[in-house]
Design brief:
Layout (H helix, E strand, L loop, with lengths): L16 E3 L2 E3 L11 H13 L4 H27 L14 H25 L9 H15 L1 H6 L13 H4 L8 H34 L3 H11 L6 H34 L11 H27 L9 H31 L3 H12 L3 H13 L7 H4 L2 H28 L14 H24 L5 H8 L13 H10 L2 H4 L19 E8 L2 H14 L4 E4 L5 H6 L7 H22 L14 H4 L15 H27 L13 H6 L5 E6 L9 H7 L4 E6 L2
Antiparallel strand pairs: 1-2, 3-5, 3-6, 4-5
GO cellular component, one term: plasma membrane
Subcellular location: Cell membrane
Keywords: Cell membrane, Membrane, Transmembrane, Transmembrane helix
């Protein structure tokens, strides 16, 4: 079609595994008819085709609920949090239950994407974008509740270290302050990770879009991404570093949230198992939420079924089963610990959960989180999207009930029977929670409509078969002999001022940037690049719509500096945290008084907390970790932008029609720059002999 070669690649999915002499074939992760161009076409058609009446009706309902939530927030802030059902002894009610629930969902989405990336699980490629989006939207929904709960929202800046105006430092030894640092760090890093993953896809949409406004929008969001081998090397290094940072970061964030409870002496809360307990529950709830979102999305948007297969749903069902079993194990350990402790108050707290006035919440939680997932051992149930959706929905209900059990039941009967009361939420509590669900679903629906819901460049890597294996040379002995003959061509090259080739003459009034060649497959691209390197060429670049291992091997760039920038950012964050906790802990040094102004001396404001030493290292570890992770993430993100040469919205390659048509879709290109010492007019015919399907001059402007 239009003279362009076919991009059909037969091998789709993952290679087979062997066990002894028996071959075990892995289920395919893409249909056999899927090609590189069809992946881009499917995702682009989802964005460019109207969703249908279901989307209009659904977003009308969810956005209405979000508006109700906003109006309820205005009412609570203007009236006071006395309109909630909170009372003594249940001073923490539904708002904190909702907050911990949404934070758990939010942490799981990015954690799933990061862990599966680090463990090289290829089936994540089709579902990671939705998981990351749900994580950010869940954190946005959960952030509503502490924002209201602090009261006097106009004084919220007191949470941040601004001692000159506040007149006092924050107590960074408190678990609630850890939450502020942890949640804000997590939200920032997740946004960077999410946006970074979409940059190559924005470049693909820039290429396919015909509407001038949208094309310009995608061009701005893509930051001038080209898909060169050097950019992919920097990108993969930074993306991997961000995933490595996010994995412990997310686990630490939910651990810090659990410390709000575990650091107290209240029966039912004072448990060292809470950090791993909350972490496992977050992963369990996150997988359940992704299933609840993706299964209806596949049914309502049929084109998604071509990229998100039943195998992806099956894999998430297995994770739901595994994490649900872990949650059930934690419940048993918690009950055993209460019995074995011989503490009458601890024992009564758990007996009250089992047979007290809220017994229905405990047993419903146990069924939804531990018993219902066990049905997924049955393959027919796990493989049925409808039954799996029902189990996942129960898991989400169970995770909310778990927070209700931990917070409400542990509080409503304290040490004094005279203060026991039954907690009853008000209509305001209900509207806020329902409204947060509406906000979450509205954001997800907008994401499906206006952003690429599937990571195109990552799914394209599933189409790409390995070009070579261990101990198998890229070239045969015959090809190596031919390359020895072609080495002699380098000495006969003449410059463009000598022998001329009319087909390679640039347009009048424009300078030549280089010569570009298109190849029909990644194999031919890599073979041509390898031969050019053997001939002595060094000023050339490879371009591919997705990264693969051989691209970095045959390219001219062998090492990325992004990892060093990440290390530098982490060091800056660590020392910034050290300065912060030191100034709020150490008394004013007398030696510095004559050298510093009074405003700087006010930074030294030691806080005496329960007779603890001024510098309490264990309680400052969360601050050290969060700031180190935050600045290391900045290093990864800006390192990719700097090393990859992004934020350059014009490149001579954009004037090349072949690249504009297929560069980030299914094209493989090699560009030899004019600055190469071996650049000559003979290069035109040589690239054809190396397997190029088309060769053109590329002008500067």
């Amino acid at each position: 079609m239009n003279g362009n070669p076919s991009r059909e690649i037969s091998l789709v999915g993952l290679p087979e595994r062997t066990k002894g002499e028996v071959e075990i074939a892995r289920p395919p992760l893409l249909p056999s008819h899927i090609t590189l161009s069809s992946i881009s076409r499917i995702v682009f058609s989802i964005l460019s085709t109207p969703m249908g009446k279901w989307w209009k009706w659904t977003i009308s309902i969810t956005s209405s609920l979000a508006v109700v939530s906003f109006l309820t927030m205005v009412y609570v802030i203007s009236t006071g949090i006395g309109v909630w059902g909170n009372q003594s002894p249940v001073v923490w009610g539904w708002p904190i239950v909702d907050f911990v629930f949404w934070i758990g969902i939010g942490h799981a989405g990015t954690l799933i994407s990061a862990i599966l990336l680090l463990s090289r699980q290829k089936w994540r490629n089709a579902v990671n974008r939705a998981a990351e989006a749900s994580a950010i939207f869940a954190v946005a929904s959960g952030a509503i509740f502490p924002t209201i709960h602090i009261g006097r929202q106009w004084m919220g800046w007191y949470l941040f270290p601004v001692p000159w105006s506040a007149g006092i430092w924050q107590n960074l030894r408190a678990a609630l302050m850890w939450d502020v640092f942890a949640v804000l760090t997590y939200l920032t890093v997740s946004l960077l990770y999410w946006y970074l993953g979409m940059i190559p896809d924005f470049a693909t949409l820039r290429e396919k879009e015909k509407n001038p406004f949208k094309k310009r929008l995608w061009a701005i969001l893509s930051l001038g991404w080209l898909g060169s081998a050097s950019q992919w090397i920097h990108y993969e290094m930074g993306y991997l570093c961000l995933a490595g940072i996010l994995t412990p970061l997310v686990l630490s964030v939910h651990s810090f949230v659990s410390c709000d409870f575990a650091s107290t002496i209240l029966p039912g809360w004072h448990a060292t198992i809470f950090p791993p307990y909350f972490g496992v529950g977050a992963i369990f709830g996150g997988f359940a939420m992704i299933l609840v979102l993706l299964i209806p999305s596949r049914a309502l948007i049929p084109k998604l079924k071509e990229l998100i297969l039943d195998e992806h749903i099956n894999q998430m069902g297995k994770w739901l089963l595994a994490t649900g079993s872990m949650v059930g194990y934690v419940y048993l350990i918690e009950l055993f610990t209460a019995w074995y402790s011989a503490n009458p108050y601890e024992r009564y707290a758990f007996l009250n959960r089992i047979k007290g006035p809220y017994f229905w919440a405990f047993w419903s939680m146990l069924f939804c989180n531990s018993i219902a997932p066990q049905f997924l051992w049955i393959k027919s149930i796990r493989g049925n999207p409808l039954s799996l959706f029902f189990v996942a929905l129960l898991a989400n209900v169970g995770m909310w009930l778990e927070r209700f059990v931990i917070i409400i039941i542990s509080l409503h009967r304290d040490f004094l029977p005279s203060s026991w009361r039954i907690y009853v939420p008000t209509i305001i509590d209900v509207l806020l929670y329902v409204g947060s669900i509406g906000l979450f679903l509205t954001l997800f629906l907008l994401f499906l409509r206006f952003l690429p819901s599937v990571a195109m460049f990552e799914v394209k890597t599933l189409v790409h078969p390995p070009l070579k294996h261990k101990n198998i040379p890229l070239f045969s002995s015959g090809e190596e002999h031919k390359m020895q003959e072609e080495l002699a061509l380098a000495s006969n090259f003449s410059t463009l001022s000598g022998q001329k080739d009319d087909s390679m003459t640039p347009e009048k009034g424009k300078d030549l940037y280089g010569i570009g060649a298109e190849f029909s497959s990644p194999e031919l691209l890599c073979r041509a690049a390898e031969k050019l390197k053997l001939l002595g060429f060094r000023q050339f670049e490879l371009y591919s719509p997705y990264p693969f291992h051989e691209l970095s091997e045959v390219g001219t760039l062998k090492k990325s500096w992004v990892s060093r920038i990440v290390l530098l950012g982490g060091i800056v964050g660590f020392f910034l945290a050290l300065i912060l906790v030191s100034t709020i802990s150490l008394p004013r040094p007398s030696l510095l008084k004559p050298m510093l102004s009074s405003s700087l001396l006010s930074l030294f404001y030691p806080l005496v907390v329960q007779g603890k030493p001024y510098f309490s290292l264990p309680t400052f570890i969360p601050i050290f970790f969060e700031l180190t992770a935050l600045f290391a993430s900045f290093g990864a993100f800006f390192g990719i932008l700097f090393c990859g040469g992004l934020f350059k919205f014009y490149h001579p390659l954009f004037s090349w029609k072949r690249y504009n048509d297929r560069g980030m879709d299914d094209g493989f290109f090699l560009v030899v720059k004019k600055t190469d010492p071996l650049f000559s007019s003979n290069l035109y015919s040589m690239l054809f002999r190396l397997g190029a399907s088309g060769v053109d001059p590329i002008t500067e402007y």
